[in-house]
Amino acid sequence: MFSPSQPPESLFASLQQVMDSESDVRDDLRTQVRVLERVLRSLQTALANIHMDVAEIKAVATGPTVEHQFAAAKQEIAKLKALVPDAQFFRFYPMFSGPLQTACYLVALKVYLETEELVAATHVAEVLGVPIEATSNTSITGFHIPMEDFLFALALLPSELSRLAINSAAQRDFQRPARLLNFLQRLHGGFQLLNLKNDNLRRKYDSIKYDIKRVEEVVYNIKMRGLDVPAASA
User: Fold this and answer.
1) Of 162, 152, 158, which is closest to residue 51 (Cα–Cα)?
2) Superfamily of domain 146-233
3) Residue 99: CB atoms within 10 Å
4) CB within 8 A of 110, min separation 6: which ones?
5) Helix (H/G/I), strand (E/B), else coil: 142
6) Which of 18, 36, 87, 227 has its CA 20 to 30 A from that of 8?
7) DSSP state of 132
């Protein structure tokens, strides 16, 4: 039978052990998060080369540098996962939710650059080696990417793609902006189907319309100048 009382020295000593253990976990996580963030910055830099020459977009997205960095990101995420104690995922998740959102976004960007379509959640899970809540009908309690963070990652796409539309027009790829606009409108329409209750996600969704407006202006200017006719038909 358990005693209802405990000496103060014993109680506070045990509590200090718990606090020390949690502090050690947080220190280890902070160190690993910094490593992961460095890998993701390198990956973003590699993918940013799409703006230098839009004719080489697929070559950049499928090139060895990008593939190597994604493999490195997967490895670092696995190391991060190993540091999170069982059944304490949500306790520590705020420490690394940002990098995981960025990783999801970069996978989504890569897939769009390759296919001009929206990434599947199952593909993101495969590339990163982390299950995504959106791919399961049951609750996931272990290390995973929550559905709202996956959606936030998708909502990051329009900003980069609106920039791509501007740079495409500047490099005389006059058909790409219209395709980008079509994709962004479809993505925005998908978000409109959702009842978003997360404030950060809702604000990010609201910003998509401004990215769409920028691409609409690019497409409008191309049409007004009669530049939207394919070169073969000109």
Assistant:
1) 162
2) Translin; domain 2 (1.20.58.200)
3) 21
4) 47, 61, 66, 70
5) coil
6) 87
7) B
Residue with tokens 């379509």: 117
Q: What is the rounded CA–CA span in Å between residue 104 and residue 96?
A: 13
CATH superfamily of 7-137: Translin; domain 1 (1.20.58.190)
C-beta separation of 149 from 196 below 8 A: no
**Mean pLDDT of the region 5-21:** 68
Beta-carbon contacts of 109 under 8 Å, excluding residues fewer than 6 positions away, are: 47, 157, 160
Nearest CA to 28 out of 36, 38, 40 is that of 36
Taking the C-alpha atoms of residue 58 and residue 129, their distance in angstroms, rounded to an integer, is: 23
Residue 162: other Cβ atoms inside 10 A? 24
- pLDDT for 33 beyond 60: yes
Instruction: Output the CA torsion sign for 192, 195, 200, 203.
Output: positive
Boundaries of CATH 1.20.58.190 in the chain?
A: 7-137
Look at residues 45, 49, 48, 53 and name the one whose alpha carbon lies nearest to residue 176.
53
Q: pLDDT digit string (tens) for 168-227?
A: 999 999 999 999 999 999 999 999 999 888 889 999 999 999 999 999 999 999 999 998
Q: Give which of 40, 114, 113, 123 is closest to 75, Cα–Cα.
A: 40
